[in-house]
Design goal:
about 350 residues; alpha/beta; Rossmann fold; 2 domains; 5-stranded antiparallel sheet; 12 helices; about 35% helix; XdhC family protein; XdhC_Rossmann_dom
Length: about 350
């Protein structure tokens, strides 16, 4: 499953190739509460068809209505980009479904050869972060290497936005838990790769949209070189496989590295990585183990939800409190003396 930015760019290009007029709409700035953050994209064609979103739906409906009534020029009075603000007054905020009197400022850009959407899409697919500088007077675009998570900037002359690779999840181990985790990751727009070299595992394991690798985990991690948009989760319970992946992943730019297991196994893993593989304390502290947020989960699907919640939080720059993590949650809720039983199924 594609992430939303990639879907918008690809669809806009396909509409343009089909001879349709297309407007790319970008959320440039917001004030107060807003359903979509700055940088959100939507494309709308001359027939009023849309992909992506910039609000809860009411602004999209207004733009569609304008285009159906008067064509693309109804929302872009000139062939160059236009800036449009919704929700300035309380009445408008209510009309367009903007909560708490929020306002949103949009840049509407007629798509042309100057837009360079094909190059931007290619950069995203090649996992290159890109700064896009749109000249509001001419519609011309300059592309430069840039941060993936930069905040859009709008002034009288330019709109600067940042796009880059979709989030990627590398899962070590093909099993039931992996399947649920991958399904959730796909629905959230992640690129997903599962690695399991064991012949007896994954013979019938397949999931549409997931790449299955039979490489050794360390070979895969070294080949892919996890970047700041990559998470790595080890799920095999086999130290010979999990540790191989973790050693290199913890020394990469991955935004999240985690592994399942009991608190005892997690402590033993950290000790192995410290003594036998000379991993630094900062690298060991970056390991999420037991992986996930504590929600009292018991089934593979619930455990996958716990792990995916922690991965998404890390992706969004949210650091979970110690009390929300699995180890602390188990310590608080377990029956004394039953930790081995409670963790046998890796419930989180």
């Amino acid at each position: 499953m594609e992430d939303l930015d990639t879907l918008v760019l690809r669809t806009a290009l396909s509409w343009q190739a089909a001879g349709l007029s297309v407007v790319l709409v970008t959320v440039a700035r917001t004030w107060g509460s807003s359903p979509r953050p700055p940088g959100s994209l939507m494309a709308i064609n001359g027939r009023g068809e849309t992909v992506g979103s910039v609000s809860g739906g009411c602004i999209e409906d207004d733009l569609i209505h304008c285009i159906r009534e008067g064509g693309v020029r109804a929302v872009c009075a000139t062939p160059t980009p236009a800036v449009l603000r919704y929700g300035i007054s309380a009445d408008e905020a209510h009309r367009f479904g903007l909560p708490c009197g929020g306002s949103v400022e949009l840049v509407l850009e007629p798509v042309s050869g100057h837009s360079r959407l094909d190059e931007l899409l290619l950069a995203c697919q090649q996992r290159r972060s890109t700064e896009r500088l749109l000249d509001l007077r001419t519609g011309r675009v300059a592309l430069h290497e840039g941060r993936r998570d930069g905040v859009p900037r709008l002034d009288d002359r330019h709109l600067t936005t940042y796009l880059g690779p979709k989030a990627r999840l590398i899962v070590i181990g093909a099993g039931d838990l992996s399947r649920y985790l991958c399904q959730m990751a796909l629905s959230l727009g992640f690129e997903v790769i599962v690695c399991d070299p064991r012949e007896e595992h994954g013979v019938s394991w397949s999931l549409d949209g997931v790449v299955l690798s039979r490489e050794m985990p360390d070979d895969l991690i070294m080949r892919l070189q996890p970047d700041a948009r990559t998470a790595v989760v080890a799920l095999t319970h086999d130290p010979k496989l999990d540790d191989l992946a973790l050693i290199d992943a913890l020394q990469s730019d991955a935004f999240y590295v985690g592994a399942i297991g009991s608190r005892r196994n997690t402590a033993q893993r950290r000790e192995r990585l410290r003594e036998h593989f000379d991993l630094s304390e900062p690298a060991l502290q970056a390991l999420h183990g037991p992986a996930g947020l504590y929600i009292g989960s018991k089934t593979p699907a619930e455990i996958a939800l716990s792990i995916m919640a922690e991965v998404v939080a890390a992706k969004n720059g949210i650091q979970s409190s110690a009390s929300a993590q699995v180890a602390a949650g188990k310590s608080h809720h377990e029956v004394p003396g039953l930790e081995a039983v409670a963790t046998a199924g890796c419930a989180v």
